[in-house]
């Protein structure tokens, strides 16, 4: 009884978290019957949560996190959002779109070589009116954001720095609310597989499952970092979320363990592997659904690998959470 009461209190705190309504429509859940048939008789029931269809800024999981983080920024009186990513960052694109919709200035710090021609997410960054600064490496991003924030303050502005992927406790709570959306649609899978990188999506997913009473295992397939370091980032986020929600860590799922698969990283972030190329083509040719090369293709490769290895029971239901991303 005490545990149920703690869960109810934490759930109420989650749902009371202030947001800005960037994407106001629930995303569908598709049944992947042809992909299941292609994977053979031992394949479990396959579903896909279509966050690539979120109705704002090109969609994707970053939109869910930004609904809470951007509200935190506006509540603090910010007039400028500063964030970082790679040249084709989905998060940078979503942040630029959020700033445009909220009447804020967006400054993006992107690591890599400035493209000769603006394409993909970088083209959208420009379309949304973002100011872009390029730095050589990932390690240069955080100090550059600090310098820009200081410059904004010196000019009389009020900057708000959004960490990589909006993967803060507040951002993770934004994603946890997506699991509430899934539960409200009466979808209760035995396992959820998704792409994991900066940790906020997986932390939110674990917390959301715990708070709606969904016992699904949550597998994050890493796009870049080793499983040990990413799992620790997720545990740290869950602990911070618990504190922010006034809950014990076990109430939001920290006692369930954190499962990260780093076998699909290959040669690194954004570099396709034979397995991710096969997964992308198989989903496109059986379901007419496009996965991105950096995140969701590798996550689907992880799911397919587990199906072929017999890691799921054929009577189970496995949900693949499509977290969006650049599809060209």
Proportion in β-strands: 15-25%
H-E order: HEHEHEHEHEHEHEHEHEHHE
This entry's quaternary arrangement is single chain
Main sheet record = 6 strands, mixed
Fraction of residues in helix: 40-55%
Question: Numbering strands along the chain, what is their spatial order in the largest sheet?
Answer: 1-2-10-7-8-9
Show unreliable segments: none
Number of helices: 11
Give the mean pLDDT. 95
Tell me the overall shape: globular
Q: What is the terminal separation in angstroms?
A: 51 Å
Overall number of strands: 10
Class by SSE composition: alpha/beta
- The whole-angstrom Rg is 19 Å
General description of the model:
Helix content is 44%, strand content 16%. It is built from eleven helices and ten strands. The strands form two sheets. It has a six-stranded mixed sheet with strand order 1-2-10-7-8-9. Strands 5-4-3-6 form a four-stranded parallel sheet, with helices on both faces. β4, α5 (120-127) and β5 (131-135) form a beta-alpha-beta unit. It is globular and about 65 Å long. It starts with a helix and ends in a 6-residue tail after the last strand.
